[in-house]
């Protein structure tokens, strides 16, 4: 015997929320965590992490923000950042092992 759709869970929803209700508003959320190549826009976050690490160990930071930004402009594919909720929390970037590429 065929089962008719009498359950509200099986029937298509016919009601709509008003456009201005809080539950209806679109929310733009960032992924909980993601890995991606760094971009020149990430240079400030990279610099802040590096500065904290260098200052805690040696009291001085030999890096400059412009150098990091320049590197990430030339070779973003030589970097990888780990982002949690849109915030850079860890990264690894290439070094002088690719000196030829960096000097072009």
TrEMBL record:
<dbReference type="GO" id="GO:0005737">
    <property type="term" value="C:cytoplasm"/>
</dbReference>
<dbReference type="GO" id="GO:0007623">
    <property type="term" value="P:circadian rhythm"/>
</dbReference>
<dbReference type="GO" id="GO:0009416">
    <property type="term" value="P:response to light stimulus"/>
</dbReference>
<keyword id="KW-0012">Acyltransferase</keyword>
<protein>
    <recommendedName>
        <fullName>Serotonin N-acetyltransferase</fullName>
    </recommendedName>
</protein>
<dbReference type="InterPro" id="IPR051635">
    <property type="entry name" value="SNAT-like"/>
</dbReference>
<keyword id="KW-0808">Transferase</keyword>
<dbReference type="GO" id="GO:0004059">
    <property type="term" value="F:aralkylamine N-acetyltransferase activity"/>
</dbReference>
<dbReference type="GO" id="GO:0030187">
    <property type="term" value="P:melatonin biosynthetic process"/>
</dbReference>
<dbReference type="InterPro" id="IPR016181">
    <property type="entry name" value="Acyl_CoA_acyltransferase"/>
</dbReference>
């Amino acid at each position: 015997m065929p089962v008719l759709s009498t359950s509200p869970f099986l029937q298509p929803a016919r009601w709509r929320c008003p456009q201005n209700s809080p539950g209806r508003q679109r929310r733009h959320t960032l992924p909980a965590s993601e890995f991606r190549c760094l971009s020149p826009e990430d240079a400030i976050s990279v610099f802040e992490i590096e500065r904290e690490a260098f200052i805690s160990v040696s009291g001085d930071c030999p890096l400059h923000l412009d150098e990091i930004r320049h590197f990430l402009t030339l070779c973003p594919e030589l970097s990888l950042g780990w982002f949690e909720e849109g915030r850079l929390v860890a990264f690894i970037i290439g070094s002088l092992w690719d000196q030829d590429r960096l000097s072009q």
